[in-house]
Amino acid sequence: MRKILRLLLPLTLTIAACEKSDIAENTPNCIIEKIETLKKNSICNDPSVKEYNFQMKVVYVIGQGSCGADISAGVFDNDCNGIGELGGITGNTIINGEEFSNAEFIRLIWKK
């Protein structure tokens, strides 16, 4: 019996380690941390994180979701420095003096 358990334990651990992440590959660690927090604390059912090319940099838009008209989405650089907020009660669309609509969508990083 012990021999069987010794054989099964490594197999079980290997299978558990191969579990696929729901976060896109090559996502900066600080953005992954923000996603893990969002998973636990989101007030909406549809939060997401999207990656864009904006002002010659890769940026991430972290959105709480669409459950409220005045909820804003944070815009962060690769080092998780906040560079602005989109939406909110004022409906802001300007980041660093430029319309965010000029941003080029790259990919969806995560969605609940």
Description:
- The protein has one domain.
- It is globular.
- The longest helix has 16 residues, at 2-17.
- 26% of the residues lie in helices and 33% in strands.
- The chain is α+β, with helices and mostly antiparallel strands and 112 residues long.
Strand order of the largest sheet: 4-3-2-1-7
The SS-based structural class is: alpha+beta
Taken as a percent bin, the fraction of beta residues is 25-35%
Order of helices and strands: HHEEEEEEE
Quick one: biggest sheet? 5 strands, antiparallel
Question: Span between N and C termini?
Answer: 42 Å
Question: Mean pLDDT, as a whole number?
Answer: 86
> Looking at the chains present, what oligomeric state does this protein adopt?
single chain
DSSP helix fraction? 25-40%
Number of strands: 7
Give the tags.
112 residues; alpha+beta; 5-stranded antiparallel sheet; two-stranded antiparallel sheet; 26% helix
Set down the secondary structure blueprint.
Blueprint: H1 2-17, H2 29-41, E1 48-54, E2 57-63, E3 72-76, E4 82-87, E5 94-95, E6 98-99, E7 104-111
Antiparallel strand pairs: 1-2, 1-7, 2-3, 3-4, 5-6
In short:
The chain has helices at residues 2-17, 29-41; strands at 48-54, 57-63, 72-76, 82-87, 94-95, 98-99, 104-111. The protein is of the alpha+beta class and 112 residues long. The protein has one domain (23-111).
